[in-house]
Every structure is written in C-alpha cells, then in structure tokens.
Amino acid sequence: MNEAEAGSNVSSDISAEVFESLRKAFIDFQIRSEKLERAYGAMQEDFKKVNLELDRKNLELKGSLAKQEEAETYLDSILQAMDNGVVGVDTTGVITHFNAAAAQITGFEPEAVLGRSYSDVFADKKGESVILSTLRSGCEVRQDERILWTKNNQPVPVMFHTAVLRDSGGNGLGAVEVFSDLSRVKALEKEMHQAKTMAALGEMSATIAHEIRNPLGAMGVWAGLLERDMEPQDPRRKTLGRITEGLSKLNKIVSNLLVYTRPMASEFRRVPLYSLLEEIVDFTQVEIERLERQIIVKKNFTGFEELHVLVDPEKINQAIINLCLNSVQAMENGGTLSVDLERDVHESRYVSFSIRDTGCGISKENLDKIFDPFFTTKEDGTGLGLAIVKKIIESHGGLIDIQSVLENGTQIRCFLPVA
What we know:
The protein has helices spanning about 5-80, 100-105, 110-115, 120, 130-135, 185-230, 235-260, 275-290, 315-330, 365, 385-395; strands at about 85-90, 95-100, 145-150, 155-165, 170-180, 270, 295-300, 310, 335-345, 350-355, 400-405, 410-415. It has about 425 residues and is an alpha+beta fold. The chain has 4 domains: about 1-80; about 80-180, PAS domain (Beta-Lactamase, 2-Layer Sandwich); about 185-260, Helix Hairpins; about 270-415, 2-Layer Sandwich (Heat Shock Protein 90).
C-alpha cells in the first residue's frame, strides 16, 4: 500500500467518524426537539387551562362584585329611606355615612360633611360628642335624649343611640349614631300639658264662677238700689258708678273665663260669610264713630256673596268683632282697617278672611304668646279675647294665623272650611 492509498484510508476513517458524530448529534437534537415540542405542547395545554381558570375566576369575581354592589345599593337605599338620621364615622372620627334624614334634621348636605371630622361639624356645646365617646370608650348608648345643634345653630331635641361597628374578626371599624327628631313629640307633650292645665282650670273656673257670680249679682242689685235712692246731684253717685263699672268688668272676666275653659257647644248652620262680615264691619264703623277716631275702613269681599260656610253664626260673630275691635284699639292715632275675603287657598277647600290694621303692631317676643290665655299687653285687658277667638275658629275646624310688624300694623288671617 503506497502512501497515497494510506492517506486516503485515514481520510475516509476521519470522515466516517465525523459523519457518525454528526448523525448521533442530529439524532440527539431530534430527540431533544421532540421533547421540547412535547413540553411546549404541554405548556400550551397548561396555559389554556390557566386561561380558562382565569376566565372562570374573573366571571366569579364579576358576579361577586355585582352582588356586593347590589347589596351595597340595597343597603344604601334602606339607609336613605329611613326616617331616622344615621351618621357613621371611621376609627379616626371622620364621617363616612350621612343619610337623607340626617341631612333633613341637621340642615347639612351630605356632600358638605362626608370626609370631614365629626367634631368639626357637630361639636357638642357641653363636651365630647356621644358618637366620639362611644368610639373612644367602646361603651354604647341605648335610647337616650339630647340636644342636637343644626347648621343654623338651632337646638333640636333628638332620641338617639350609638353603636360600635366591627368586622367579622371583632376589630373596630368605627361607630354609628342613629337619631330621630322629637320636636313634634315635645310639642304634643306641651299641648297635652296645656290641655290638662286647661281642664283643671275649667273645673276650677266653673266653681269660681258659681261662687263669685252670686255675690256679684247681689252687689250689683244693692248698687242699683243705692243709686235709685240718691239724688242726681249727690257726689257719691260718681263713686257708686265706679263700683258698678268694676262689678261689670269683673263679671266680664268671669264670663270670658267660662267661655274659654268650658267645652264649646255650637249650633252650626250654613250661612254666607259675606253677610257676616258686612254686618260686623257696619257695627265696627259705628264703634269707630263713637270713639271719634280717624280710621278708614276698607271692605274687600265683594264677589263672594254666594260663598257659604258651616258655622255657628253667633260665635263667629263674636270672634270677628273681637278681632275688629282689637284692630281699632291698636290705632289710637287713626289708620286703616281692611277686611278681606279670599277663596283660592288650600285647593279651594277653605275660605279665609283677614283683619288688617296699620296700628302699633306686636313685638316679636310677644307674637308667639299672643293667643295664650291671660297674656295681654293692655293695662285693662284680661288676656282672654284672642285665646277665645282661636278656640272658636279651631272649634269650627279652621286655622288662625297672625303676622305683625312693630309700629307697622297687624294682620290676623282665619281659615274656615267651605260648606
């Protein structure tokens, strides 16, 4: 074998080894590629499973969020529909809940208080607020009363209770106060107390009237007899006249007291209100002439001749006369007395008449007490005139309202149901 053949054999052996190595490497690469392909396929399957699971979880989460949102909307609707005010604070005392009733009672709009510190909005004038005290101490308050100060710094009596808010683990989330306005309840309590007082006064006045009227009658008779036996020029007649005048005034007080305190028995008839006003205005004009006062009387009730009311004419006459004479007395230096009649009030179920004067008026501090029995601003008044007027109007199912400006006049408006 020559050198050329030997070199050729060596070259062939090397090529065979290289080929074999390449073959093995390719087979190994092919095996690895197949493994990678299978792994990739498995990974794709896992990825699909993960995506499906994520989609399912997303749907569940959306459903859960929708239910939670629905529950929150439902609870918020209940909260807003409650008649009781509800205020909630977090652990730092910041307001987180404030329903419509709370806004109505306090005068604050929810947007103006949410996110603000409770102590900044509802600072208690007597110390720490009850809800913050509950938040700090954990002691809840059940069914108590207190005064709540509104946005306009007006006191409102409220019934309230407080509670601590906790999560499922018992950890504190804040506190809540639920309160209700007691203004109407307090007003009713005051009315009941006044009714009881009036009932006791009625019983007492009936006894007093019986005990006083008999001596008054006898004194009047004896005064009349004395006056009969005196000469016309006797100076003692003046003193006797004062005694008689005092007896008459005392008898009037007792009579008014009986009218106010006794149950009012009325004989209702269907009558034209126009004719009642016409008759009383004529009587008032006569009284104005007798007192020699410069008072102009205006009648503003034409066109209502066919308007009827179901009333006791005598008692309504008494009420209107009392109002007119009060107005005349308030205009010592003259003025204008206007008597008006209106129909277009309260969906035409009521007719209203008003007595208006340009007299001295009533001060604000006295305006709320003007219908109280025995309250008077007159030196010789009994304080029962307007109280009786109010009772007469209300006994007919009506209402009475007063408006007055000091030194500028007074208007009293009475509403009666249309027959």
